[in-house]
Amino acid sequence: MQEDCFERPICSSPDTWFDVVTRVANDNNKIQKRTKNVSRCLNLGSYNYLGFAAFDEYCSPRTIECLKIFSASTCSTRVDGGTTTIHTELEEHVAKFVGKPAAIVFGMGYVTNSAVLPVLIGEGGLIISDSLNHNSIVNGARGSGATIRVFQHNMEGIYSMEGELCKLSEIVAICKKYKAYVYVDEAHSIGAVGKTGKGVCELLGIDTANVDIMMGTFTKSFGSCGGYIAGSKELIEYLKYTCPAHVYAISISPPAAQQIISAIKVLLGEDGSKRGAQKIAHLRENSNFFRSELQKMGFDVLGDYDSPVMPIMLYNIAKLPAFSRECLKHNVAVVVVAFPATPLLLARARICISAAHSKEDLIKALEVRACS
């Protein structure tokens, strides 16, 4: 039984080191019972790419002040009383950051894909979708009623389970040839790649005007929650009137929105420091160091250089529990992934690197890997 390897309770912020609650089971791991004991573990599982999930000298005070003014929730949808000045400011900052005329934000990243796609295309339309696209895209496409044709690989900015960058320039060229629209999911790439963190377009030198719809989330690089769609002003106005996630769902929490605004300002240097550029550079250095060291040790590591997502292939699902438990025993917390999130015989451990990791943190993790 592998239940102890999943849904491990955490009782601290998802910083580089966090507290994992110890659980016990007396029935072959069928029922896990929490204890009062915790283990301080190196966090290689959270999407805290730029380190904003922990207390930040610029972001955190502003988020706390926003909580005092706006409270934790708007208790309303965007079309009723759920649009605050914080929400409109966030949308302006997102549009500016990604290089599109306008943007709309949602309270959940998954819903950003699954609720937006059905209002962009319907019966009679054609969706050409990557075989490894995230489940939110798959469900959104199915819900649209459009015809779906799947191709083998490469359309998310960075693949959540593969750590690979998409071949965007080739895809843009094909879409121009056949007059198709380009929709890019940057959930794992926005903030994490590119010289100033603006994602795959910046990294690959592609004009954002060539990408019709840019989707991303705030849960990875910005230490918050929610997602966004950026595109033309006409597109965003259309979504405001038609997308159920905007019309019927509670708006993103104002303090969460303020956290994103503050993080974007840090990345753009508008906080008066160079911390944003330093974070992005350090993330790239950490990612490339860790990837190259794993490869030297003989691990089969998927993904591209500069990507902070590193799947270590274990293949056989029976290896997952031993790998996960051995790491935890040495105070290193990792995520293990298997079917249905991956194909049955492609089980893996997925490592997420952070700019907040020190060289010593990464060396410790490598030493544990060598023993696993």
TrEMBL record:
GO CC terms of this entry: endoplasmic reticulum membrane; serine palmitoyltransferase complex
Record's keyword terms, sorted: Lipid metabolism, Pyridoxal phosphate, Sphingolipid metabolism, Transferase
Broad class of where this protein is predominantly found: endoplasmic reticulum
Listed pathway(s): Lipid metabolism; sphingolipid metabolism; Sphingolipid metabolism
Classification via PROSITE patterns: AA_TRANSFER_CLASS_2
Pfam families reported in the protein's UniProt record: Aminotran_1_2
Similarity comment: family membership: Belongs to the class-II pyridoxal-phosphate-dependent aminotransferase family.
PANTHER family membership: CLASS II AMINOTRANSFERASE/8-AMINO-7-OXONONANOATE SYNTHASE, SERINE C-PALMITOYLTRANSFERASE
Protein name: Serine palmitoyltransferase long chain base subunit
